[in-house]
């Protein structure tokens, strides 16, 4: 590094200096072009072919998309994603914010409690999915336990109920991610100027009002970060489903990521799997682009 | 900001706050407790007892068997995770530096493209990435797997550093440039020293992601070089033969230990890093 | 590419590993499989030991999960990378798919030297060939259409071992009345379809089964007998534990072993659970053909396909594996652990238990007529796409107590058509 610094003092190398940032970014740009967009393009191409067991390049137009639209399982998976994603993001935000606000009240042993909320993020779902599968299993877990303890009327059979199994996924996913949301917001709260709150208190506002009206609105950027991360987790949810329900009962708890994987790899319908991947990406694009656009515009240092 | 709030009210509301926090702690801990208890039970005990019942006889046999099954793969995971985490963090730092301090035409577009990349379901890239690795002569090597982890970790590491550095005043960099400091000098002397918090966040995040990865590990590593998650999966997801849940759970704990430890030991740096600006948009 | 190469070089320095693995001196045989349970691992170890004794290196590439689905993902990625393993656990019609890609090697020399044509049943040998040449080596024959019974539970309930579907329901009613779970079952698509396939085999007979699942004949698929098969499946569902969703089959088997449930419909691998629990066939448990499928044999054959390799020494190791896999020593250990039949026909069946001996006799009998049929639920009959379509319909049907059998056959037919 020192040689570079010395060289830089010589003015003819200004040109290099100007190009250096681009050079530094170049490998990453190439990686993004090939490893992200090149591969997406490849998937896009496959979605118009009759690829089955392995990739092939016989063009079939929109046939794979038509097939996908006809597939009941795809619709179940898509609806599940809306339901799962909405509930997961909403509940994680509420729980995360609530815990962050409570933890911000000069709590003793805050470090310990924080770690407890955060640890689920550290473990892979391959592992914790199994524990949750047990806990939510009607004949084995909480359901049986609470009845053993005398709460006779207790029923928790969502895991085996095709109409409610998605809620089980939501529970485990919230458990895993809400601690992280808590950390994000706690960090945000620590950056809020205490004098604002003191001033509001002097004006006679109650604590909940202060949080709702003043503090939380000032954390808008944190909301966006949390939203991005949660949405990203929701869309990619795969390990969670694989470990807890494998899509069952029937295919009632299937999600698009799972659908795409099983059709592409286990079912030998690569063309249709690719079509589902493209639709997923399209949906993400539709949601993400407006956000990214506003985000990147407002970020300029002008 | 916590100074003024509940400090003056000891009474009921304070009690409620503690009660809620402790109750939440218990809920968060239940799965871990179940796993721990189960790992120390005997298979018969598991069959007859309930999930949260205390083991009738505490036995370490599950842990011994689990270590036999997955312990050998522990070191593989270390060999994969350490270089992948370090390199992806370094590259992310440089990228973030360029994207915040040295913008040029198209750099914003690149950042947008990269962010969208975060959402790419990794299942879609398995086959083309295999193809690329094959062409590079890296198929089924640890090097290849490390490379894949770096590539798909870049989006997040870049995001972390870029957001962190946007909160650093540009004037600081301008001044250094006027003094004749070059690209790397500014990075090394000015930005890097103030990046400790975000480096911690990035390291913790990447470590967790890569250590816990199963998909890339199972596809891009082979045989004796497989990471511990693959070994764990082979143990847990084997549906033929007698199930020994105590072994499964012990193995899960062994596989999760490093990441747990990182969160417990470095958790406060994580929060500090987030506070220092990682979350400011 | 340059930048990636550069980066790759940096990365490889960092991980202190050479860019490409150097060709090992003694031949290496890498095997991708999902034999990961205790018994299976012990069996694979005998294979490994034999290979190592012959002076070769065994590289184990075990990938559990989803009945081989995870292993298949790995295998496809490896093939795309131009770096397939020497051998992989691939079976049934998939062998033809891999053969069509031109990736498999020709094992005819090994086959001739070891007289495979005489050792293997013709039907089995045909599955192992692509374009008339051996490309795979079979390791065992599973029978799928078994019913496992706990006689103590049956005695307590006063139930009789069933031989027809009517008797099956009669026994189930008795078990239910006595407070037992009549039918232990795990609610996973492949298990649901295993039951369904047995019911179809029972109601439509082997010829109808063949028309439905091998020929995918529309008339058979939508016919009255198929509707009856669906309603029978639905009725069987009422005798299963409502909390069965996602349960592994071996957990269900444990319910029968522990006397909580009376019977289980499952392939012969279920025996490994009974053996592991220290129970003896014919005494502690009964194995009978699924009611109405006596004389039929729905087979599920595990095999190893061999990929084309470049290195001379590796090819030698690969050929050695092909040879050893069919030798009596491995066949005995492996099949005793798996509960299956040895694939070679000249084996001494003495060391095997009553169930396997019965299975061997049934196989020989079924081979003469139409009784020998490929298992749909275990990917021996159709392509994976069609199998997946059938799974979807069947598992959804069984999980919806109000489902209409007449509608289900239409769904089945259209799902299969769209997957073809």
TrEMBL record, chain A:
Per the record, the GO terms for biological process are: transmembrane transport
State where it is primarily located.
membrane
Membrane topology summary? Multi-pass membrane protein
What's the domain of life for this entry? Bacteria
Alphabetized Pfam families for the sequence: BPD_transp_1
Q: Which UniProt keywords apply?
A: Cell membrane, Membrane, Transmembrane, Transmembrane helix, Transport
Q: Which PROSITE patterns match?
A: ABC_TM1
Q: Where are the transmembrane segments?
A: 23-45, 81-103, 115-135, 164-189, 210-235, 270-293
ABC transmembrane type-1 domain location is: 78-293
An annotated GO cellular component of this protein is: plasma membrane
Q: Which CDD domains match?
A: TM_PBP2
Which compartment or compartments is the protein found in? Answer: Cell membrane
Q: Identify the PANTHER family for this entry.
A: ABC TRANSPORTER PERMEASE PROTEIN
The UniProt entry's sequence similarity note says: Belongs to the binding-protein-dependent transport system permease family.
Q: How is this protein named in the record?
A: Glucose ABC transporter membrane protein
